[in-house]
Amino acid sequence: MNQPLFLQPIFQERIWGGTALKERFGYDIPSNHTGECWAISGHPNGQSVVKIGPHSGKTIGELWKNNHGLFGNYPSDVFPLLTKVLDANANLSVQVHPDDDYAKVNENGELGKTECWYIIDCKEDAELVYGHTARTKEELIQQVESGNWNELLRRVKIKPGDFFYVPSGTIHALCEGTLVLETQQSSDTTYRVYDYDRTDQSGKKRELHLKKALEVTAVPHNNVKTETKVNEKSGATITTFVEAEYFSVYKWNISGKSAFKQDKPFMLFSIINGEGLLKVGVETYQTGKGDHFILPADIGEFTLEGTMEIIVSHP
User: Fold this and answer.
1) Residue 172 assigned to a binding site
2) Considering the entire predicted model, what is its pTM?
3) Model confidence over 255-292: pLDDT tens digits?
4) 168 and 306 in a common domain
5) Domain limits for position 250
6) Which of these is catalytic: 14, 135, 192, 198?
7) Can 192 be counted among the known catalytic residues?
8) Residue 11: which residues within 8 A CB-CB, separation 6 or more?
9) At 139, which CATH number?
10) Residue 97 labelled as part of a binding site
């Protein structure tokens, strides 16, 4: 029987990052500007490594290539999903991502990037940028060229526990004081539209990608509303946030002991709060806040016991 793959996250420093990943999850971060924890990743720019068990020391990419059966022989050349925890200590650039077709042609075969956010925490009155007000491509170009950001960008107030689905082609940005778990296609392609005229340590402004950004932005903005469903079962409350083309994402609130069945090609788990036990077959694993693991194919029945908030996803 396959065993859970517990993973060592990778950290990425960003101009907008901070120290929340250390303060909240106890991670050993590289600096006080750590913006991203790549928690479950098979992307070449940052691969998660298995921490324990028979596959210890191997990356997700290696296992995808050489042990594809672990993932139910899921039909994709690459591990399709990427789970991140983002510390937006300052505003992220206003940006947009391409879809699969555009990225394949223009980004060397990279996947497109549809993503979604679960707001773990945020400061009071926090907001994010989600969409724009332009009705035509011409209006969008004119507003961008004249720097009319206050009129162009749609801003949304947020609170902990909110969920946002962000399809490719959506202009968006996390804003200062936000801690987010992001589930996305495995892509590292971002087109910056606006960066608040910030400069780096050497006084240079970060590159913008306006031509590509304007080509891929959906006009008019498509305000996708997802329907949240809540199901109660013994020892658990299951909240379904989205079941979409690239991924399904849920929150599992465990309070007590609850039995589940792993009947997907593979499932991704990120524990954002609490601690407890994962039981698979005859093995029991202690797990808690800040842990990330994959349950591969053929796991079958498993139980979770304790008090935990877990973000769960699968392709």
Assistant:
1) yes
2) 0.97
3) 999 999 999 999 999 999 999 999 999 999 999 999 99
4) no
5) 229-314
6) 192
7) yes
8) 21, 27, 29, 30, 34, 36, 37, 38
9) 2.60.120.10
10) yes
